[in-house]
Design goal:
Distance between the termini: 44 Å
Number of strands: 26
Helix content: 40-55%
Strand content: 15-25%
Structural class: alpha+beta
Mean pLDDT: 79
Strand order of the largest sheet: 14-26-25-24-15-22-23
Low-confidence stretches: 9-20, 254-275, 414-434, 525-548
Length: 836
């Protein structure tokens, strides 16, 4: 059966255009955020600033990203506004970014140390409080009511003071947070116990243990959460740490430096040695300067090896542990490690332009971009604390005025879940109270509602999963740009591959020359710039025709010199290997997807595909095309006359077929999109077992975007994998664009996922990682919503009439503390699925 790939008609659905002028992005380190309510409050304050288009705040990494109109926002003024409103902030602008990053890390470490100190005091108070119940009359001092009053007072003044102060300030600023709920619960419990202590005739019990245990559990949960968040962010911190601090600047002159000189120091292991060097900060290196890198040192900036040979550990970029051989002419990336020999390199990219700096920027940006699924949680978080306080008031009113009258039995005895540890009176012992007043019971239930609600779990559900997922990706050379990308990855049903340079190696080789030159003005008998004419035919195997015309190759090479494409590179390489000097050419003009033209020896010459030849009025014989079946054909014409055609062949990437099969096994449809001829596309498609319906051939660059739009119009969720400038419109049009890092900068910049290793199996792994991360987000949100949906009614006493279960404030605080810990821990479990 004949294989006929599809071609794309001209009329297709509207293409999503890419904006030429992008908004300015400003990033801030924001402190003082305690829960999702705080993050929402910061977002509101940022959005109120003139010129701000959008704001995104990440609670897990304490970073805010602001999208604004260029030149309209004063970053320092905006940071001061946040600081004045209780959220200490600092912009990441200016040359002191490294110092600012170090200061942020130091601030966070200091916060953790303070939290551990507060937790230690709280645990000591909990132990002393618990001993009073365990020892009872054996330790009269520990069971004395005034001793427990002192413990509760110390708990509020020492470890609980920052929580209470922050909670009150947040409430005063009309931005209540988790600390507001905890402060209200602890202070209310303490106040009620003081009233019972001072007015014993009311018959209330004293529960001074409640604020002690409540604050202790909260601090324990926050400390565990901080440690888990720090662990989740470890991949990014490791990536940041890879950026070299120093560079060795040398005055390297090839004409005067003998690298093989026997005058090298006896203890030197270096073949490249120059005692005249200066150490400077790596971010001060300029493009074009020469740098010396010794074995064991990090490459300071992106560059090119000029002298010496070594092996480079690139695992931090690609995830591959095997060192890569580097010699003069090869490129090296900042942050990679020189393993064996000393080299001299020339800087090509410095500062924020280096590969590792771009990786850090990509990962940081990814961690601040939310998945759309988080929008519901953000909306809830904005009103969460107000809602919880309202539910708490309603709980108190219901039980005081109705509940205790409808079910009077609830006032008798202690519930099975009551963790109040008994009651206290003015005596030295702690007897069990069998009767509670309606006011006290209503108050305890209201307090339990306040402290069991957890806005933190809602705020951490998405960012912690993205934090871990993006970190795993960075370690493996898979850069995913954000949570919104993860959600689209989860929805994919179609993956479209570009052919040349993506499914194939892109290293084209010449296989056929078919010279024509009939009725042309070129003088074939002239000896102009033709060398070794008699030996040319022996260099190409499988040549069609009895002779090879070197003049055709010379003309084609002269024109292709003005193009940047694998076809041009292959033709120029063949001309160079045959020793054919290039003809003089000027006035180059490239038509993407068609070919290139130039003035060669005063004549306009066109080199491109058959379609372009027809547009130029050049007739292409059908039998001529048929003789190049399954190959890429480049037609050369001048003055409306065909001079000849050159055939080229590409080879399939070794992992292409395995990647396609894996993607199919994941339930995805795999397609191929190419501007190459239908016959050439058919050969590649047959090697990959693609059906004719899954191949789109002879598609121009602008047609590629229309082809993707057509698939989307049919309801498909499409990912495009590409590497070239021609692929950029399709990458932008796709739901998810996947770019190979070896490709052009514009393709990498347009893609939402960048593959550092340039391996097609990484397409599979990136989709698997995206799916797994998004599943973690859904699990976290389900737990966060489920916990609050079930926990708040239980704390409000819904089970009390039927089962006698009463959740004490201390128990509620424990559940609240560990709910956020469970969300972060669940995100960390993602690493189990992606162990190396």
């Amino acid at each position: 059966m004949q294989f006929l790939p599809k071609t794309i008609p001209e009329i297709q659905p509207e293409i999503i255009s890419v904006k030429e002028s992008r908004p300015e992005l400003v990033t801030f380190d924001v402190g003082g955020m305690k829960c999702a309510g705080c993050a929402k409050a910061v977002e509101r304050q940022l959005m109120q600033y003139s010129g701000v288009i959008s704001a995104c705040v990440n609670l897990a990494v304490e970073v805010a990203t602001v999208e604004c109109q260029p030149g309209t926002v004063d970053a320092e003024a905006l940071a001061k506004k946040l600081t004045d409103n209780g959220f200490p902030s600092q912009s990441r602008l200016g040359e002191n970014q490294r110092e600012a990053e170090a200061a942020t890390i130091e601030r966070r470490q200091q916060e953790i140390r303070q939290q551990i100190n507060q937790l230690t005091i709280a645990l000591i108070l909990i132990i002393l409080s618990g001993l009073g119940h365990v020892l009872g009359t054996k330790a009269p001092i520990l069971s004395n009511i005034w001793f427990h009053w002192g413990l509760a007072t110390l708990a509020l003044l020492l470890p609980g003071r920052p929580i209470i102060v922050d909670g009150c300030r947040s409430l005063w600023r009309n931005a209540p947070n988790m600390n507001t709920l905890v402060a209200l619960g602890a202070v209310t419990a303490y106040t009620a116990s003081n009233a019972a202590l001072l007015f014993p005739r009311m018959g209330w019990e004293c529960f001074f243990d409640e604020p002690v245990m409540l604050l202790g559990f909260i601090l324990l949960g926050k400390t565990l959460e901080q440690q888990a968040r720090r662990r989740a962010a470890s991949a990014l911190q490791a990536l940041i740490a890879l950026q070299p601090a120093k560079a060795r600047l040398v005055d390297f002159k090839l004409s005067s430096l003998d690298l093989r000189s026997e005058e090298l120091p006896l203890n030197s292991t270096s073949e490249v040695y120059d005692p005249q060097y200066i150490e400077i900060p790596a971010d001060r290196v300029r493009v074009g300067e020469w740098l010396q890198v010794l074995p064991g040192e990090k490459i300071p900036v992106d560059g090119e090896i000029c002298e010496g040979k070594t092996t480079i550990d690139e695992s931090m970029l690609t995830g591959e542990s095997m060192p890569v051989l580097k010699q003069p002419g090869d490129t090296v990336a900042a942050g990679t490690i020189n393993k064996s020999g000393a080299v001299v390199m020339r800087a090509t990219r410095t500062g924020k332009e280096t590969t590792v700096a771009q990786m850090v920027a990509l990962v940081q940006a990814a961690q601040t971009r939310k998945a759309p699924i988080q929008n519901l949680a953000d909306t809830v978080a904005g009103y969460f604390v107000y809602g919880v306080m309202a539910i708490s008031v309603l709980t108190f009113l219901f039980w005081y005025f109705a509940g205790t009258h409808i079910w009077p039995s609830v006032l008798l005895g202690q519930g099975a879940m009551d963790m109040g540890h008994g009651a206290m009176n003015m005596g030295n012992e702690l007897p069990i109270i069998h009767y509670q007043s309606p006011l006290l019971l209503s108050l305890k239930l209201a307090i339990a509602v306040l402290v069991i609600a957890c806005p933190c779990a809602l705020g951490l559900a998405t960012p912690t999963a993205i934090l871990v997922g993006s970190g795993i990706g960075a370690e493996r050379g898979l850069l995913i740009r954000g949570g919104d990308v993860l959600e689209r990855v989860h929805q994919l049903d179609t993956v479209v591959f570009d052919k040349t340079g993506t499914l194939t190696t892109g290293n084209l080789t010449l296989t056929d020359y078919l010279p024509v030159f009939q009725n042309s003005e070129w003088d074939l008998n002239s000896d102009i710039n033709v060398g070794n004419k008699q030996d040319v035919g022996s260099t190409i195997e499988g040549v069609s025709g009895s002779a090879v015309d070197s003049k055709l190759l010379q003309i084609a090479a002269a024109v292709e010199r003005g193009a940047c494409h694998p076809i041009a590179a292959a033709i120029l390489l063949e001309a160079q290997q045959q020793g054919l000097p290039l003809l003089a050419a000027e006035d180059f003009c490239t038509e993407p997807g068609f070919g290139v033209s130039a003035l060669v020896e005063g004549r306009r010459v066109f080199a491109g595909n058959a379609e372009w030849m027809k547009e130029q009025g050049v007739a292409v014989a059908t039998e001529l095309s048929g003789s190049l079946q399954g190959k890429t054909a480049v037609y050369v014409a001048s003055g409306g006359v065909l001079l000849g055609v050159i055939g080229l062949k590409d080879t399939l990437r070794p992992d292409a077929k395995a990647a396609v099969e894996r993607l199919r096994g994941m339930g995805l449809r795999v397609m191929m999109l190419t501007g190459d001829t239908a016959s050439a596309a058919a050969v590649t498609a047959q090697q990959l077992d693609l059906t004719p319906a899954d191949v789109l051939a002879e598609v121009r660059p602008d047609g590629k975007a229309r082809a993707i739009a057509s698939l989307q119009a049919q309801g498909c969720k499409v990912a495009v994998v590409g590497d070239g400038i021609n692929d950029a419109p399709a990458l932008a049009q796709a739901d998810v664009g996947i770019g190979l890092h070896c490709g052009t900068d514009v393709a990498v910049e347009t893609a939402q996922i960048v593959l550092m290793r340039n391996a097609l199996m990484d397409v599979v792994e990136s989709i698997e990682l995206g799916r797994a991360t998004f599943n973690k987000i859904r699990q976290n949100l389900f737990w966060a919503f489920g916990y609050n949906t079930l926990g708040i009614p239980v704390a409000a006493g819904i089970l009390l009439p039927a089962t006698g279960i009463l959740l004490s404030p201390a128990a509620a605080g424990a559940f609240m503390a560990f709910s956020s810990v469970s969300v972060v821990t669940n995100s960390l479990f993602l690493r189990r699925s992606f162990r190396a």
